[in-house]
Design brief:
The protein is an all-alpha fold. About 75% of the residues lie in helices and about 0% in strands. It has nine helices and no strands. The protein is globular and about 45 Å long.
Length: about 180
């Protein structure tokens, strides 16, 4: 893998994205899509992806052409926020997605194990393509880590190790609230 220890080499670009997220936090929480901007973002997103073969993969330290990659990212974020604002109006879907969001760190850490094992097993059993087997493996890649999260919540010593400290202490009754 390319890169310096602790991914310090991609710190400037990731810091820029984190700071942009912090700056636009209020707008994201109170997001209301504009139909004209949705159409415009969809068009720009589609043109950028079909005309240019640029992509961004910070894990591989590849950013592509700066203007195109950034434009793709910005329009993709706008479209994602549009979809999210639409889905939050459906209570059942919103609750499921909120649960998945609360487990996102566990999904980030454990998805590869479940997804890779499921995809390989499905590919070997059925003979379908690798892409098709990974589509099937998407669900276990999300559900498996969420199952681990639920187990961790119920085992106090695992919760102490794997869940945020403030939550652990409050749940165990040791510290109710930290005074400001």
């Amino acid at each position: 893998m390319p890169g310096l220890p602790w991914s310090i080499d991609i710190a400037p670009i990731t810091l820029a994205f984190f700071l942009a997220g912090l700056y636009f936090r209020a707008e994201c929480f109170d997001f209301h899509p504009t139909p004209l901007l949705v159409v415009l973002a969809t068009g720009i997103f589609a043109v950028c992806h079909s005309v240019f073969s640029e992509y961004m993969d910070l894990n591989l330290r590849h950013y592509g052409q700066a203007l195109v990659s950034t434009l793709q990212a910005a329009t993709g974020i706008y479209l994602t926020l549009t979809i999210a604002s639409t889905l939050k109006k459906l209570p059942t879907v919103a609750n499921i997605l909120a649960f998945v969001g609360r487990g996102s760190l566990f999904i980030l850490i454990f998805h590869f194990f479940f997804q890779n094992k499921t995809a390989r097993m499905f590919e070997n059993l059925t003979g379908v393509s690798r892409q098709a087997s990974y589509l099937v493996a998407f669900l276990p890649g999300v559900v498996g880590p969420l199952f681990i999260m639920e187990i961790v919540k119920r085992v106090p010593w695992l919760a102490l190790l794997l869940l945020p400290n403030r939550k652990n202490r409050a749940r165990n009754g040791e510290v109710q609230e930290i005074a400001a």
